[in-house]
């Protein structure tokens, strides 16, 4: 702890300098850990506008960085958009042209809207599709099925849950945002483990991080036949 004794009202205590993040030049390691585990990202955890501007482009918590909370939430947002309220055909045409590197006309002015949704960026003749734009196009064609979901565990500190999507794999765990499950079930995070849910899921995904759960709900009623399909470790009396 640093002491400054020339303060007229007594010593001023300053926080120790935080260790810099090894993965970015703008934040402390602690801030990046907090930002990566929050949909608010790094800039949502600082107070003054100058610092917000300095850390606003931090890659450690960005929605374009795989595995961050912001990334997981962005995947859900894009998939829900594609499957529940898709773009007008004119906007989809422009996005597909960008994806294929084709020349196109934009008479209805779709590009600013695509940029606002972060599906495209650039300006004038330098427009390009983003990762989210490609994810949107993929979600338009990706089959989705209803699957039972079992909540194995919750990390309250990182606000994530480990679940088993039974229609995808009977043992492999999938990381999801625990707060989304809590909103559906109206229980505290610590009460989520052991619950069964239902969700629409892209069961063809190869990587567990690529599974996107939407339309999550508590199945009603939960019958004996329903819970008979359960993660393999539960069949053995809970030993893992």
What Rg is obtained from the alpha carbons, in whole angstroms? Answer: 22 Å
Say how many strands there are: 9
Q: What proportion of the residues is helical, as a percent range?
A: 25-40%
Classification by helices and strands: alpha+beta
Shape: flat
Order of the strands making up the biggest sheet: 7-6-5-8-9
Note the main sheet. 5 strands, antiparallel
Strand % is 15-25%
H-E string: EEHHHHHEEHEEEHEEHH
Distance between the termini: 44 Å
Unreliable runs, pLDDT <50, ≥5 residues? 1-5
Walk me through the structure:
With 240 residues, this protein is of the alpha+beta class. It contains 9 helices and 9 strands. The strands form 3 sheets. It has a 5-stranded antiparallel β-sheet. The protein has a two-stranded antiparallel sheet with strand order 1-2. Helix 3 packs across helix 6. The longest helix is centred in the first third of the chain and has 16 residues, at 69-84. It starts with a strand and ends in a 5-residue tail after the last helix. 27% of the residues are buried. The model is unreliable at 1-5 (pLDDT under 50).
SSE layout and pairings?
Layout lengths: L1 E3 L7 E3 L14 H8 L12 H7 L13 H16 L4 H12 L10 H6 L3 E2 L6 E2 L1 H11 L3 E11 L4 E6 L8 E4 H8 L10 E6 L12 E4 L6 H5 L3 H4 L5
Antiparallel strand pairs: 1-2, 3-4, 5-6, 5-8, 6-7, 8-9
Helix pairs in contact: 3-6
Attribute tags:
two-stranded antiparallel ribbon, 240 residues, five-stranded antiparallel β-sheet, disordered N terminus, 17% strand, alpha+beta
Brief summary of the model shown:
By secondary structure, this protein is α+β, with helices and mostly antiparallel strands. It has helices at 29-36, 49-55, 69-84, 89-100, 111-116, 131-141, 178-185, 224-228, 232-235; strands at residues 2-4, 12-14, 120-121, 128-129, 145-155, 160-165, 174-177, 196-201, 214-217. A five-stranded antiparallel beta sheet has the order 7-6-5-8-9. It has a two-stranded antiparallel sheet with strand order 1-2. Strands 3-4 form a two-stranded antiparallel sheet.
């Amino acid at each position: 702890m640093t002491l400054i004794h020339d303060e007229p009202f007594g010593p001023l205590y300053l926080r120790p300098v935080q260790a810099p993040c090894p993965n970015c030049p703008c934040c402390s390691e602690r801030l990046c850990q907090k930002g990566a585990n929050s949909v608010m990202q790094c800039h949502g955890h600082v107070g003054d506008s100058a610092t917000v501007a300095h850390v606003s482009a931090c890659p450690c918590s960005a929605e374009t960085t795989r595995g961050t909370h912001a990334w997981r939430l962005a995947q859900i947002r894009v998939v829900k958009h594609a499957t529940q309220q898709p773009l007008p055909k004119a906007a989809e045409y422009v996005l597909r042209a960008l994806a294929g590197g084709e020349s196109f006309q934009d008479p209805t002015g779709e590009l600013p809207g695509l940029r606002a949704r972060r599906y495209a960026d650039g300006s004038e003749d330098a427009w390009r599709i983003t990762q989210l734009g490609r994810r949107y196009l993929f979600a338009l064609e990706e089959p989705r099925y209803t699957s039972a979901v079992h909540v194995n565990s919750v990390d309250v500190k990182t606000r994530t849950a480990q679940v088993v999507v039974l229609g995808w794999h009977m043992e492999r765990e999938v990381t999801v945002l625990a707060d989304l499950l809590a909103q559906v079930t109206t229980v505290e995070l610590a009460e989520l483990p052991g619950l069964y849910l239902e969700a629409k899921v892209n069961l063809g995904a190869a990587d567990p991080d690529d599974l996107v759960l939407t339309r999550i709900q508590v199945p009603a009623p939960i019958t004996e036949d329903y819970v008979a399909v359960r993660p393999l470790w539960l069949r053995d009396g809970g030993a893992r």
